[in-house]
Design a protein that fits this description.
Layout: H1 14-28, E1 33-38, H2 43-51, E2 55-68, E3 74-85
């Protein structure tokens, strides 16, 4: 699962609402496991995943890069991996989500 929002829309609950809908639909369609990766420096992202019932499964150290410095050296970044398992045959209003605040 992934998400990217324009900074003007942060803090309005849009990511929470859309992720909840995605999780409900995926599990209703029979998906067994949903996982997401995020930057450990992005606290709002991993707090969202935890509020959505995801559990941190891994912390990969210096496993990826998106940029290089001015000398062309790779700037390594860490990654958190989160996952949530389908709790089983539940009605759509029984999925558990936690308050982010």
């Amino acid at each position: 699962m992934g998400y990217l929002l324009n900074r003007n829309y942060w803090g309005h609950g849009y990511a929470t609402e859309s992720c909840q809908a995605l999780i409900r639909q995926a599990f209703s369609d029979g998906c067994h496991r949903i996982y997401a990766e995020c930057d450990p420096c992005n606290k709002r992202s991993w707090k969202l995943l935890e509020a959505l019932g995801f559990q941190r499964e891994a912390h990969f150290r210096e496993n990826t890069y998106f940029q290089k410095d001015k000398n062309g050296n790779v700037i390594w970044k860490d990654t958190y991996v989160y996952a949530r398992l389908n709790p089983g045959p539940l009605s759509s209003d029984q999925f558990s989500f936690h308050d982010i605040r």
